[in-house]
Amino acid sequence: MRPASALRVLLFLILTMLVMAACGGTTATAGPSNVPESSAPTTEAPPIDQPTSEPSSEPTTPEPASPEPPSAEPETPEPEPTGLPASAAECTGTDENVAFYAEFARVVDWAVYCPVLPAGWFVGTGQWRQADGERLEISYRGPRGAGLLLQEGSFCPGDGDCVPTGEEIGPTAFGDREGTLVATDGGWAVVVDRGERPSWLLTISGVGQAAARQIAADVVEVGG
Questions:
Q1: CA 72, CA 74: separation in Å to the nearest integer?
Q2: Lower CB density within 10 Å: C or N end of the chain?
Q3: In this structure, are residues 140 and 151 in contact, taking their beta carbons and an 8 Å threshold?
Q4: Where are the domains of the chain?
Q5: Residues 223, 105 contacting (CB under 8 angstroms)
Q6: Predicted model pTM
Q7: Can the peptide bond before residue 198 be classed as cis, meaning omega within 30 degrees of 0?
Q8: What percentage of the chain exceeds 90 in pLDDT?
Q9: Is 168 helix (H, G, I), strand (E, B) or coil?
Q10: Quick one: CA torsion of 97, 103, 104, 108, rounded to 10 degrees?
């Protein structure tokens, strides 16, 4: 081969190798890549608002609610006046029985008494009069056939005392007065100011001596 032809061939080979080297720069290398793989595109997260102060580690106790002011107590209505003495309310019986004693106490100028009896006693009949001397009579019925008759004022006509016959036992209380206990055939009698006007007589049947004394001691003066 001629030297000139050999030179052209050599230049052509060099040029061909340079072109191939330039094209190979666009292919990926076999070495490891420094860029991490990602299966999805990443997006920038929105900024998070930072708290203005750190939360307290101690639990907070709610403040107790202020107590409401107590409501005003309703006023207690005053009882309507009845016009009856306070002591008359203690008398055994209904309101009408109480009024019976209270009215008589207004028209006489001496002490009027009423019995305060245990449970089971109730009023039978009663009356009072001003004509022919001021006097009151009222009866009561009690448990197991017991009975009581109260007489006050000028209840005994003439000069008698109307006390049942019997044995005089001795002094015993009649409310705030002292009376005399008499054992009668049917029970007991307690008399105060025997034979006087006024006088007071309590006749009791169907009870023992102790019960009779207690009944006489428990009488109260109406309006006294």
A1: 6
A2: N
A3: no
A4: 86-221
A5: yes
A6: 0.62
A7: yes
A8: 54
A9: strand
A10: 160
